[in-house]
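Format notes (please read before filing issues)

Several people have asked whether sequences and structure tokens are stored in separate files. They are not. Every record keeps both together, in the order shown below: the sequence lines, then the token lines. Line labels are part of the format and must not be stripped during preprocessing.
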Amino acid sequence: MDIMIYFLLYYAVVYMGNAVYGTFIPVYFSSVGASPAEIGALLSFGPLVAILAQPVWGAIGDRARSKNAVLFALLAGSGISVLFFPVSNAFLYLLLIICVFTFFQTSIFAISDTITLEQLEIQKKWSFGPIRMGGTIGFALMSMVFGFIARQHIRMIFVVYALIMLASILLLTRFPKVSGHQSGGSKVKIWVLLKHRRLMIYLALNFFLQVTLGYYYTFFPVYFRSLGGDNSLLGWAMVISSLSEVPFLLFSARIFRRFSISVILLVAGIATALRWLLFYLFTDPFQVVATQVLHGLMFIVLTVTLATYINKEVPKELKASGQTLNGLLNLGAARIIGSFFGGLAVEWIGMRSVFLYCAIIALVCVAVFSWLGLREERIKPAVNPSVHL
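Then the structure lines:
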């Protein structure tokens, strides 16, 4: 069997965990009596730990004799720690467990992408888009299946997630060994990345758009139920958002040959602003479900574009650190702001109104980036503007 088939299966399985935990943990917290402000706090303190954990795991990955062993530790740690959630409903206890869980969970995808992209450089026959599409399909299937389970058994979220992590570990054992590029003694400081002006501009745009996504991931499940949607329909909403990623993943290579990265990221920003505006305008759950198709122009575009750009442009000694720096901003700082301050804003103006402010934030990002990012390309054209996916 082609070795990359195992990577495809791995992405399909590991992203099932995202569908279970990311979609339904706010519903679980709500079911045990947590207020919107408490939910926002719980889902923002985890990313606070991620800000500390991401650079640590990135540095370990770059220096490790086997990045596979680092990924094994992340999968095992998140799979074990998630089982401790239902022990108590006390706020401080949940806060502690979510911090431990996030310490392992938030770096899984950055290290996974690092290993996969480096292996793709060796294989040549595959590209990242089709491999990453496995994650999209896995997420969609699990969203649909667990949506039905969650209607009556929301507490199953933890056991199912742990089993998914176990399956991911079994697939990881089939991966070829990938060593850290600093494992031989060559040391490059992570601060080198800060001198990469264009990367910093791209990361800045991604950061502010991810702040709005942080609010969405924390409060959309609760908001959707407040509109009259049940957990089953919520599962279908996540299926639509996941499947909407498929066109970009299938045609990403052509898209990147035809358009610059700045233009593609700009389109993602416009789609983000439009989506949050529609969330504010629509109050029927079925209308909201329809807007989920815009997800395919947002999260996956930002994620795949930046992951591939980092793998191509940063020094090889900092590939894992570059991916985890991206994860630090997106899954750490941005999620903290989106979750915590989003929770406070909900208490002041309501969930629906916050989506309007998210749309405004995205529009401002588009305006600034359309001047700054495109200006940067005109001043200093990329050596190789087309990024192979």
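For reference, the curators noted about this record: Residues 382-389 have pLDDT under 50 and may be disordered. DSSP finds 15 helices and no strands in the chain.
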